[in-house]
Amino acid sequence: MRKLREKTKKAxxxxxxxxxxxxxxxxxxxxFSGFTGFNRNPVALTWEMIRQGKKDFHVIDRHGSCCTWLxxxxxxxxxxxxxxMGWGEMAGKLDVNMERHYKRGKIxxxxxxxGAMAMRFLAGAIGAPFIPYHAPLGSDLYxxxxxxxxxxxxxxxxxxxxxxxxxxxMEDPFWKDGLxxxxxxxxxxxxxxxxxxxxxxxxxxxxGIGTIDKxxxxxxxxxxxxxxxxVPEAELRKNPEQNQIPYFTVDAVVPQAYAGYPSAVPFYxxxxxxxxxxxxxxxxxxxxxxxxxxxWIYGPKSWEDLMTKVGVKRLLxxxxxxxxxxxxxxxxxxxxxxxxxxxxxxxxxxY
Length: 351
Hints:
Elements: E1 12-13, H1 16-23, E2 29-32, H2 43-51, E3 57-60, H3 66-73, E4 77-82, H4 96-103, E5 108-111, H5 114-126, E6 130-133, H6 148-151, E7 168-171, E8 179-184, E9 190-199, E10 204-205, H7 213-219, E11 222-231, H8 233-237, E12 252-255, H9 273-283, H10 286-298, H11 303-310, H12 312-318, E13 331-332, E14 335-336, H13 344-349
Parallel strand pairs: 1-12, 2-3, 2-9, 3-4, 4-5, 9-11, 11-12
Antiparallel strand pairs: 6-8, 7-8, 9-10, 13-14
């Protein structure tokens, strides 16, 4: 069915609990913002989803993150379409919980390339039913033998968010440039996005890497934002070119400081790699995993209580420099990161 945006949305200002209770249902097709497990993951929203017992999600993702790790920790993902099934480059890489569920037949994994997933979300964002893409020609990603959703019998038209085909090959009819593959648009029910600043009407912005978060907002039926700062909408309108998310795509805004922890929000706080390594270590043993979930998800009374548990000392260590955007207090290897005095391009060129 073609996606038509017939009217402008009016974003509500909600709490974590209110946003999840109102907008999230079991079995939804969901997508998450950020870059892997280290940049602007909407962790607080995912944490609250788990606390409210939401489950059986169909995740369409560019790559794993702290969010998918948390959902896999409690077995809340039923179908996972992605281009990388890890979650954090410096935290074990492999999502051990996901591997465990896959081997037990509790999760369906559908694999695409990085570029293919980005193109699928682009198609969803512009309202196209599909999009042509060349890469990765010759790989088993374009092999019916590995069409997981097809083998599971889910490409039967009974699931409105699952396309009839994983891909369709065709010869380029315009330039006679050889074989090209048509990929189905990604159309999530809901996108969870964490940003630096959001206006009270829903306009939002961040600094640093953005990957395809803007496309997620246009492709999804609903969008929930968490933000480090809720600012007057008029303030964001002063420099509209700095805004990535327009208000008319947003359904709810949740002001929640540190809502991306333990991932980073550039110019606010850095990622907490030791904490993430602790997550990975816990996942290696099922009993340890259960203890971790009880301690860090179900134990705290609120997100603020969780941050209190992390501790003010650690949060201050993670606090980002307002100019360079990352913390110079935390160890990266054997010593803290150096303070950048000028852009690398200036250092190398001399001007």
